[in-house]
Please model this.
Amino acid sequence: MHYFVRSRHYKINPFGLTVRQKLYINSLTQELGWDEGHLRNFISKYYHKSALDSLTKQEAIKVIESLKSIKFSQKR
Model:
């Protein structure tokens, strides 16, 4: 497992987005009830990227935190 995580196969793009981050973002969007178009618009508006796969690792971390805060605010 440690070999796989450090390998290039774990990264989706050359900028560092990982499979785990992509799956977690997709999971959060499903919990929010968003479709793929809604997520694409969110990423386009706030991160100026055309798709989820074009995010860097740092941007993906920010997207995850944003989605978690949106989810938390909807529970209130």
